[in-house]
């Protein structure tokens, strides 16, 4: 299958654009803000300029399925909730450690194969309702490059009392975040490194733009959880770990931070898997900086995937990978969460 051709057939005019002279347009969907000449494509390759109009993908998925919300990962949202996840094709980043490179980088690699299934937003909602999913998540590839279509899905989802989320690299523009409001409830952001050179040379992005998205989304009242895949010699030095933890804590010590272990993949097959010593060190640094909810992933982590009361230490949620083995958070008068022992508020959307 020629994915570029197939993608181009399933597109619609994008309102996230600005027109200039000579049929040139600027895409406003992500912080790259590509200036795209007539007949050319943006960095993500899935959005293109045809006769001075910007077109963006819609009406297909490369994969769709039901997962527990913990798998995204979101640990402070409706524990155990069934979640409909859908993904498309393409990405605005070029991470050499991408675990989904066969879908994210397919437009640059004609030898990659992926599924391409046409689907309408109401069919996605029907599937979610049939499966009793409480949340719909755009994930697997980068959602920021298809926000127009996600908004169509999210509006229908909201009408059916289904919450909506992105699992994203955090490169949404301010315009895109405003465009998605108030239909984007939860945002999981991948903070890949705190080194500007790593972002610009290895990934092809600017660190400051991801940091701005985290700050903006928090101010907009979107529930945020942050994930960092720890890769030895890329983002595991004390300087970066301290800076990342400090940055998150300065916004709010209530934001959960998931530190996950890298396993060799894609262009980094020679880089060793991240060991438990590194994960534990990052975990301790995050705690020292005052973060209340820090979690370890992709590793035999015992108690590092549980939630404890930050005030009295009571065990509140015991997890085993993606399953909830014990849940001990009580609703307060406003149906937010509190510790059953000391009544301290526990940040999240628990009920
Ligand atoms: S989504 Fe981002 S990368 Fe893609 S065309 Fe728009 S600005 Fe460029």
- Estimated helix fraction: 25-40%
Rg from alpha-carbon coordinates: 20 Å
Q: Mind summarizing the main beta sheet? A: 8 strands, mixed
Which spans have pLDDT < 50 for at least 5 consecutive residues? none
Strand order of the largest sheet: 8-9-11-12-13-14-15-16
Beta-strand fraction estimate: 15-25%
Overall geometric form:
globular
- By helix and strand content, what is the structural category? alpha/beta
- Count of runs of 4 or more consecutive helical residues: 9
User: What is the residue-averaged pLDDT?
Assistant: 96
Number of strands: 22
- Write out the distinct hetero groups bound to the structure: iron/sulfur cluster
Cα-to-Cα separation, first versus last residue: 44 Å
Polypeptide structure, described:
The protein is of the alpha/beta class and 351 residues long. 25% of the residues lie in helices and 25% in strands. It contains nine helices and 22 strands. The protein has helices spanning 3-9, 101-104, 121-130, 147-159, 174-180, 196-203, 207-219, 238-251, 276-288, and strands at 11-13, 17-19, 25-27, 35-36, 48-50, 53-57, 60-61, 63-68, 82-87, 117-118, 135-138, 163-168, 186-190, 223-230, 257-261, 294-297, 307-308, 315-320, 323-327, 330-331, 337-338, 345-346. The strands form six sheets. Strands 8-9-11-12-13-14-15-16 form an eight-stranded mixed sheet. It has a three-stranded antiparallel sheet with strand order 1-6-5. Helix 8 (238-251) links the parallel strand 14 (223-230) and strand 15. Helix 8 packs across helix 9 (276-288). The longest helix has 14 residues, at 238-251. It starts with a helix and ends in a 5-residue tail after the last strand. The model has no long low-confidence stretch (mean pLDDT 96).
